Amino acid sequence: MTSTTRPPASGARTAHPEHLGHVIFIAAAAAMGGFLFGYDSAVINGAVEAIRGRYDIGSAALAQVIAIALIGCAVGAATAGRIADRIGRIRCMQIASVLFTISAVGSALPFALWDLAFWRIIGGFAIGMASVIGPAYIAEVAPAAYRGRLGSFQQAAIVIGIAISQLVNWGILNAAGGDQRGKLMGIEAWQVMLGVMVIPAVLYGLLSFAIPESPRFLISAGRDARAREVLKEVEGDDIDLDARVAEIEHAMKSEHKSTFKDLLGGGFFFKPIVWVGIGLSVFQQFVGINVAFYYSSTLWQSVGVDPSQSFFYSFTTSIINIIGTVIAMIFVDRIGRRPLALIGSVGMAIGLALEAWAFSYDLVDGKLPGTQGWVALIAAHVFVLFFALSWGVVVWVFLGEMFPNRIRAAALGVAASAQWIANWAITASFPSLADWNLSATYVIYTIFAALSIPFVLKYVKETKGKALEEMG
Question: Is 265 left (phi over 0), alpha (psi -120 to 50) or beta?
C-alpha cells in the first residue's frame, strides 16, 4: 500500500476551518490503532513476573512468551498493505480491531502457556497491521497543509498508549493489594491487566464505522462518486473535484511499485543506502529501549523496588517518553534529523553507562545501595528521554525520506523488518542476559549507543528541507 506525496491541485491546499475539526476527528480515530499498538506492546510489562510464577518457567521460556508477539508484528506489517489495497483501509482497521479484541480476551483467560503465546501472536499481528494502516490512511485523507501535523498523531498515540497501559497496570496492582497474582473479578490481577485492552480495541472498531474510506482506495476501486464526496468532506467545498480525482489517478498510474530486486546491488548484496536504513533500524533497537517498556517492572523489582513502586516508575518513564516525543516533533524540522540523532546518541550513552555503573554494585538487603539506586532510577529516565526526543522519532522520519523514489516502498519494508527482528532479539535475550550479569547487559546497550554516533556521522545524510525527488 502506498500513498501519494504530491501536493494537491490548486484550490485544495488547505481545509477550511469548518472542515478541519472533522479532519482532526478522522485522523484521531485512525490513530487509535497507534494507541493500541503502544498499549498492547507495553501492557505485558505488568504481567511478566506473574506469568513466570503462574507457569513456573525460567527466563529463556519467559522471554519467548514476551517476544513471540513480535513475530506476529512482522507478519502483520508485511501483509497489511496488500490487505488494505484489496479490501480497503477501513476494513483493514476493523480486522485489526477484532484481532486486538480476541487477543485481549484470550490473553486474559489462557488455559496454558502455549495458548497465551498464541494470543500474543494474534495481538502482534494486529499491532503490525496498525503500524502500517494508520499512517498510510492519515496521509491519504489529510489535506496537504496539515499532513505532517496530522501524521504525527500516530506516534503521539503510540506513546500515550504505552503510558496509559502502565497507569492501568499500576491501578490494577493497587486494587489487588500490590500482588500481581492477587484476585480481582475472579481472576488474577495480571489477567485483568491484559484483558482491559478489550475496551480501546472495541472503541477502535466502533470509530472505524464513523470515518470515511480513503479517496485513494475508492478511486482505485472505481468508486469515483464516493471519492469526490470524501474529498469535499475533508478539503472543503470550493476545491476542483475533477482536478483532484485526476491528480490522484495520475499519481497512482505513474508510481513505480518497487520490488525486492530493486534493492540489490553494490558489493554487499543490498545497495549502500538500504544498509544505512537497516543500520538505523538496528541501532534504534539495540540500545535496549524496549527493555524499558517490556521489562521495567521486573528490572526494578530485581534490584529491590517493591512491585507497586516499580509499576509507578514504569508509568513515570512512559510520561518521560511522551515529553521526549513532543520535543522531537517540535525540533525535528527546526534543527534537523541528524543533529537530533547525535544529541540523542550522546544522551542515551550517558544514561545507559550510569545504569551499568549502578547495577554493578551488590545488593544490600535485597536492594541497591541508596546512591546507586537513585542513580539507576534517574539514569533510566534520562535514557528514555533522550531516546524519545531523537531516535524514537527521527529514525521513522529518515526511513520515510532517505530512499530514492524508485525503491522507497521496498526499502522501507526491509528496514522495518530489520527493526522487528532486532526488537525480537533484544526482547528475547534480556531475561537470560540479566540473570547472567545485569550490569554487563547495560554495558552492551551502552556500546551500541556509543557506536551509533560514528555511524550517523559517517553514513547518514541530512534529509531536512530536501524534496523526496532529490534523494538518490
Answer: left
Specify the long-range contacts of residues 222-231, CB closer than 8 Å, at least 24 apart: 230/141, 231/12
pTM of the model: 0.80
C-alpha cell at 457: 556521522
Condensed to tens digits (0 to 9), the pLDDT of residues 290-341 reads 888 778 887 888 777 787 788 888 888 889 999 998 898 888 888 888 999 9
Residue with cell 551509533: 452
Closest to 315 in 3D by CA, of 299, 301, 296: 296
Residue 143 main-chain phi, psi, to 5 deg? -60, 145
**CATH number of the domain bearing residue 161:** 1.20.1250.20
Q: Please write the tens of the pLDDT for every residue from 29-41.
A: 999 998 998 898 8
Neighbours of 8 (CB within 10 A): 21
Among residues 255, 287, 319, the one where a domain terminates is 255
Contact 439, 359 (CB under 8 A): yes
- Residue numbers in the chain where pLDDT is lower than 50: 2-13, 15, 468-469
Residues 196 and 233 occupy one common structural domain: yes
Distance CA 75, CA 420 (A): 10
Q: Which of 255, 276, 297 is the last residue of a domain?
A: 255
